[in-house]
Amino acid sequence: MRYLTAGESHGKGLFAIVEGFPAGLEVRAEDIDVHLKRRQMGYGRGGRMKIESDAVEFLSGIRWGKTMGSPITLAVWNRDNKNWPKMMSPHAEEACPDEIFTRPRPGHADLGGCLKRNMQDVRNVLERSSARETAVRVAVGSLSRCLLRHFGVDIQSYVRSIGTLNCALSVESVDLKAINKCADKSIVRFLHTVQDDDARTYIDQMRNEGNTLGGVFEVVITGVVPGIGDYASYGGKLDGRFGQALMGMQAVKGVEVGLGFGAAHAPGSQVHDEIGYDSQNHTFPRQSNRAGGIEGGMSNGMPIVIRAAKKPIPTLYTPLQSVDIRSKEPFAATVERSDVTAVPAASTIAEAICATVLAEAYLEKFGSDSMDETLRNFQGYIEQLQRF
Ligand SMILES: Cc1cc2nc3c(=O)[nH]c(=O)nc-3n(C[C@H](O)[C@H](O)[C@H](O)COP(=O)(O)O)c2cc1C
Ligand SMILES: C=C(O[C@@H]1CC(C(=O)O)=C[C@@H](OP(=O)(O)O)[C@H]1O)C(=O)O
What we know:
Elements: E1 2-6, E2 13-19, H1 29-39, H2 48-51, E3 56-60, E4 62-63, E5 66-67, E6 72-77, H3 110-117, H4 123-129, H5 134-148, E7 154-162, E8 165-166, H6 176-184, H7 188-194, H8 196-208, E9 215-222, H9 238-247, E10 252-257, E11 294-295, E12 298-299, E13 304-310, E14 321-323, E15 330-332, H10 343-366, H11 371-387
Antiparallel strand pairs: 1-2, 2-6, 3-6, 4-5, 7-8, 7-9, 9-13, 10-13, 11-12, 14-15
Bound molecules: flavin mononucleotide and the ligand C=C(O[C@@H]1CC(C(=O)O)=C[C@@H](OP(=O)(O)O)[C@H]1O)C(=O)O.
């Protein structure tokens, strides 16, 4: 399975072509839209989220509610596009060269993108570097979730911290009950439940100061059978694949699996998870899950626990110093609109990204021609594990 996304933040929409999904998988737009809606939630987002109301449209590959085995095209249309008729027009005669944007924001892709592609108009970069693109990545991830539920896989996430404000939930020993409880309410989950008022006050304070916030979120994946991923080649390693995919999310600056960086500071006896044997279920359970469910690049049957750090939003209402790329004069930019924080959204996006990585790895192992065949192969593997 592989996919490609296209589309600009203020263009007509965001699109993905997904290749390699088995035929016969039931998919409903509602299964995808629920996650698109979650991605738009969370206190601290800017005016754009009031304009958009994301929903998926299937443009190919799905007929009568089921995948056909052909490439699937997903579209998420931009409502805001109608407000940018000339600025986003593909036609040369509608160009407005006097209005080009030449003021790169520190922390965004603006300057690097212009230097790399020899462009003077920052808009050519920001339209694609924008995290608006994650809308369609969440759509792909939600499609992947439709597949993964046939294997009993469940993916949830929550926000651990925003700025210096810690989430009340403890995760040192993964508390799935708490996560489940938390996830029922979705994230706003954090903002509407755990420390609602504190978080809002803190975010409001940052907004008033013209500042922005990042944070840490955690994805917990349950129901993964042992042996997904591979130890034999660097490209097959499941932790490496999660890391690459998550670092591919805008503004993610760090990814940890299990104890992560903490594993470097403790002796081995406090890092590795002892192996037991459950003769009734023919499984090898662990009393702890410091590895975060992945050893040697493969799932080990324990919940997969991945944390990621998101940096603060680069566009500041109290702007940082920068230089106009045409005049080379210093300036402090004015900002029309921007998010103050988007950590809850990032948490939802991370779930989708992890779902896609896992769906790809499952299809590699169990085949991808038809759901019947894929599930038959999966069942065969379960029996093999039982006989082991
Ligand atoms: C959900 C989400 C929303 C974001 N919203 C904004 C925003 O409103 N303004 C902004 O400047 N950056 C925003 N960002 C961050 C930029 O997209 C990101 O910092 C930029 O693409 C540069 O990439 P890098 O941070 O990975 O280096 C957002 C990121 C995410 C994940
Ligand atoms: C549009 C989304 O996020 C956008 C990500 C983003 C950025 O620079 O990354 C900038 C903002 O866009 P705008 O400039 O149109 O206000 C965010 O709203 C979205 O998440 O759907």
